Amino acid sequence: MWPEKGKRSTRIRRRSTVSCYFQHDCYFQPEIIFEILTRLPPESLVKFMCVCKDWNSIIRSQKFIRAQHDRSMKANSRTILVLNSNAPTRSEASLVYFDTLIPHTVRVKQPLNKLAGMTSVAGYSNGLVCIMRAGEHLVVWNPSIRRFKQIPFEQPAGAGKRYYGFGYDSTDDDYKLVRVVVFGFDGVSSEVKIYSLKSNSWKKIQGLPRIEDFGMLSLRLSSWNGVLHWLMCHKLDEQTHRLVTLDLATERYDELPIPHYNDGPQLTLGVLGEEYLYVSLHYRPEAESILNSRNDVWIMKEYGVATSWTKLYTFALEDMPQTPEYKRLAFKSYRHCKPLLFSETGEKVLLHVDSDTLYWYDCETKETKRVHINGEPSCYSTAIWKGNFLLSDGDPV
Fold first, then answer.
1. Which of 180, 219, 306, 337 could form a disulfide with 163 if both were Cys (CB 3.0 to 4.6 A apart)?
2. Confidence (pLDDT) at 340
3. Same domain flag for 164 and 40
4. How many whole angstroms separate alpha carbon 304 and alpha carbon 311?
5. What digits encode the pLDDT tens for the residues 221-236?
């Protein structure tokens, strides 16, 4: 027998007032809900904002964003962002997760897809990626929640070559972009400006320290622990280098020692897995076979201590199996081998070779394994990615 209409409608009305914290024995205190939500990936948080007003309010709060950000910074990320940097009319990007045996790839839209020109990575830190196109269009982008913020363009004082670096200043709790413009053929004069994500403004600081007869070598300033790093090379002696730093908090320049080397290698600088500063030494004896080319990678285990530079591995073509990939690299004579991150056991390193190939390299056995990802571009940039909820108030991609 059907209940009376009045009673039925009352029952439905009562159910509609149930709180999203649940009731009776299923009730959770807001503090517990807060803690649970901070442990979830950003992609899930975007969906959970639609569950109810209470959860939406929690996730949007600065307290929650800060807690989730701090948790993500402590996590060891094994995810990279792959950004197509080959075709000017295409703007593909993917997040590649290496937490499983087979890499899992998720396609994401990037915010500069409607502009002409090549897209490149200016820098990255803690899940935020700064990308640019045509040297003037820059954005700070959070791929995990598909949000970004446009960086206002600041006209340089004159024509010159531009260098960029992006990092996190924990003292001011601010993400900052540094632009270095070097003027003239001698490269003696320069202009350095810092963009603050918090204030959305630029400010000029002291120019690069004048190191006689030295010029910029690094194309990008590498960020580690709130400090930007780059290499400078002697203009008359290409085998003499200096490692210069800029502290984002104090805005002071300094120098660090570099590992000792012989035989005139080509040097590149970077950060391995957001854990170690590294210097890669590429040796290619011109009078010998291409197969003698190799990359020695050194990591600084104790920051600022010269004696802490330790050789992590040597990657050489002659150690690779005789596969079509081996023949292709030998034909090209690879020039750059960028270490990205460690495997879960720490025994292997993921390498990005010549901007178009990924390998797992075992530092002990010297074995290599080609990594194939879905929709792999013919040429691409990479960045270490960590999921967070920063820029939740930004523009949608």
1. 180
2. 95
3. no
4. 16
5. 999 999 999 999 888 8
